[in-house]
Amino acid sequence: MKLKLSLAARRSLEGFTFILPWLVGFIVFMAFPLAYSLYMSFTEVQVTATAINFTFVGWDNYIYAFLSDNVFPVELAAFVQESLISVPIIVIFSLLVGLLINEEVWGRGIFRAIFFLPVIFSTSQVITTLFDLGAGGGSFMTRFNVFNMLINALPESLNEPVTAVLSRFTLVLWSSGVQILLILAALKTISDSVYEAAAIDGAGRWESFWKITLPALRPFIVLTTVYTIVELSVSPFNQMLGTINRHMFSVRTGMGYAAALGWIYFALILVALVIVYTLGMRKVERY
């Protein structure tokens, strides 16, 4: 007997069929590993030649990370400090470059390609090799003693993150390609008639930027900020990832403690994303 389905049911079934491969992949390669790592974070994992033994320890791994580990809290604080400086630099730089190459100037297509080419070629291995060879080392700043002047001028708590960002300034430029593309796409959503109406009312370019362009770009600025935070969190130069990997293969701590560090790191990134999204979208709603 042939089962009769309504049009809505058939469409729902077709849609589910299309997403089924992705759903299976998500469950197998994402949901299950996440749940498994969460379980491991509450255990002490011992790997033997014949089996993997789990001993439930509750919150001991998380407590040890903050109260007994002398390295993890320091590296976590350093990551937060460097991110608080790197993220605004990348977002503001992307905004300025996007505004510049959006103008009707000769060769703007070439400039767009130049800024986006690093996204195509900058795999983690390429970036790591360039960094090892000294690219992004800030040779200009080293030659003219800029680092020492900054160290003397800035508070001690800001010396390390600021010099770390400036020493990798070339890499900051390389990591701005997607953000610039997002800003360019956002600028295309603003109708020219809005600027024409503002010009008729006597608004200059500076006023148009603050009253029209920037409010219209705010959702996209939030998006670029979120993307930048995620990009920095998985960067090959991120010391946090190296710390987690080191504990994963450590005989003394092991995979259980590494899983706990990973979830602490994930919670920190998630809180940062929620704060950025909440503050950014709240400003849009008020406007």
Features:
76% helix; two-stranded antiparallel ribbon; single chain; 287 residues; MetI-like fold; globular
Overview of the structural elements:
With 287 residues, the protein is mainly α. The protein has 2 domains: 9-56, no CATH class; 68-282, MetI-like (MetI-like fold), CATH 1.10.3720.10. The protein has 14 helices and 2 strands; from the N terminus they run αββααααααααααααα. It has a two-stranded antiparallel sheet with strand order 1-2. Helix 3 (72-101) runs antiparallel to helix 12 (205-233), helix 4 crosses helix 10 (177-187) and helix 12 (205-233) runs antiparallel to helix 14 (254-286). The longest helix is centred in the first third of the chain and has 34 residues, at 7-40. The model has no long low-confidence stretch (mean pLDDT 82).
At a glance:
This protein has helices at residues 7-40, 60-67, 72-101, 108-121, 124-133, 139-143, 146-153, 156-167, 169-174, 177-187, 192-200, 205-233, 239-248, 254-286; strands spanning 43-47, 52-56.
Q: Any idea of the CATH class of the largest domain?
A: Mainly Alpha
Number of domains: 2
Cα radius of gyration in angstroms: 24 Å
N- and C-termini, Cα separation: 59 Å
Count of DSSP strands: 2
In N-to-C order, the SSE pattern is HEEHHHHHHHHHHHHH
Helix content: over 70%
> How big a fraction of the residues is strand?
under 5%
Structural class: mainly alpha
Q: Strands of the largest sheet, in order across it?
A: 1-2
- CATH topology-level fold name of the largest domain: MetI-like fold
Q: Give the name of the CATH superfamily of the largest domain.
A: MetI-like
Could you report the average pLDDT, rounded to the nearest whole number? 82
Number of discrete helical segments: 14
What is the annotated CATH architecture of the largest domain?
Orthogonal Bundle
Ranges where pLDDT stays below 50 over 5 or more residues in a row are none
